[in-house]
Amino acid sequence: MLEKVSGFFKRFFKFFSVSKQEIIGSVGLIFVKDYISKSLVVELFSRIPDNRDPLKIWYSMSEQLVGIILRLLGGDIPFYHFQGEKNSAFLKRVYNICKEPHFTTFRYLFKTNPHIANYLNEILFQLGIDYLRTSICKYGLKKITLDIDQTDRESYGRQEGVRKGYSARGKNKKVLQGSVWIIRELNYILKVELLPGNTHCSNNFLERLKPVIEELKKLEVKILVCCDSGYANQAIFDYLDQNRIEFIFAKKQNKVVKQRGKNAKNKSHLQNGGIVIKERICKTKNDSKYREIFIQNKIIVDNYGQLYFKNFASNQFTNVLITNLICKVKHVYKKYREHAIIEKVIEELKNDFGFAKAHGNSFNFNSSLAQLVAIAYNVKVNFLRDKAEAETNQFHLNLKIIKLSTFQRTFIHLPGILVNHSGKMILKLSENTLPIFKSILLKMDYSFYPS
């Protein structure tokens, strides 16, 4: 089987006029490039105005931007200049041109077109709305969840927008802030924002939230907004409630909140997981009523089997939530715990896609790369879901999305390994990778390319 596959890939690269040079490991990106070319991404990229000198253009706007996405998916995170002939043979084949795209051409592209960041922001959001509209009809979604969180980005040297602000690495670190908005049900990034390092996540959050909510309301599905305590604000609660948008926000545990939790009377507990909860109605000036839920899942049991809050005297709660949901508390708590999916997305963006790195001095340049990182992540998610549905003839709404490193080994580097070793190398595939790659090989039409 592997020898047959190796022969197919050799004919495939002969068809693309590959010389006798050693085939590099990133050849599978050609399949991803074909997938991108069939999507709306290239068409939207081509609509961005180009202010470059026509005599200095090597590649069109869409080719440049798609090239960055391919380099992100291929693992070229630092975006440094090419060292030697690294990936040059592959990029020559992809673009079918005598010269490979150099990173200086990307810098020239962004320098002469500072408006790219704004266009990419709109393109990312438009792609998300279109994909969400299609998915609602395709999967019959009745409700969507918008998860929002913010993370810091590392900075090096003097860069525009870098300020001392909150960082997981400690206080008074010079960073850039990145805000990520995802649709939980689809594991899809709807919006990414790059902000100065001293910008708190709640700054102008309501003004940034309104246009997103207005677009989501046009989809005619129920909407749930889930955020952590940094976004909690009474004006935001009132706006969402007036627009009949469900929400779950965590609240900061200051002295007033802790005292309210201590004085709350309706204490109960959930058997599964041993969670103790208290709940009270929080009234506002405009006569709105929200539920304030105090949760503690670290409990003690006395000799009589009675449950108590651990460290209750010091009013330490696991979570304090405020919501307008009317369902049971265990469902509210479950919905909020699922908010952790955005932490996994941010972790992959920072560690695998290089979202945590600031690559240039210009704020627009770094903002543009942040948008392209989000688009590259969405391309990976869509590629995996479409592949799984094409192979099984079934919908996969809750498909487990593999990390970028596994995606690279499965769809990008494995074809190159098979070609280099003539199908005689023993490949150790993970339990999840083997059925995916095997189904792809069985579906291929080996007679399509000339021998």
Structure description:
- This protein has 451 residues and is α+β, with helices and mostly antiparallel strands.
- Among the domains are: 188 residues, no CATH class; 63 residues, no CATH class.
- The protein has 15 helices and twelve strands.
- Strands 1, 2, 3, 4, 5, 6, 7, 8, 9 and 12 form a ten-stranded mixed β-sheet that branches. The chain has a two-stranded antiparallel ribbon with strand order 10-11.
- A hairpin with a 5-residue loop joins strand 8 and strand 9.
- The N terminus and C terminus are likely disordered.
**Strand/helix succession:** HHHHHHHEEEEHEHEHEEEEEEHHHHH
The number of helices is 15
Distance between the termini: 17 Å
Global Rg = 25 Å
Structural class: alpha+beta
Low-confidence stretches: 1-6, 11-25, 80-87, 421-427, 445-451
Helix content: 40-55%
User: How many DSSP-defined strands?
Assistant: 12
Shape: globular
**Main beta-sheet strand count, sense and barrel state:** 10 strands, mixed
- Please, what is the average pLDDT? 77
| Relative strand content | 15-25%
Short description:
With 451 residues, the chain is an alpha+beta fold. It has helices at residues 2-15, 29-37, 41-46, 61-73, 88-95, 103-112, 116-139, 205-217, 234-242, 255-263, 329-337, 341-351, 363-392, 404-420, 433-443; strands at 143-153, 163-165, 173-183, 188-195, 222-227, 246-250, 267-270, 275-283, 289-296, 299-301, 307-309, 319-323.
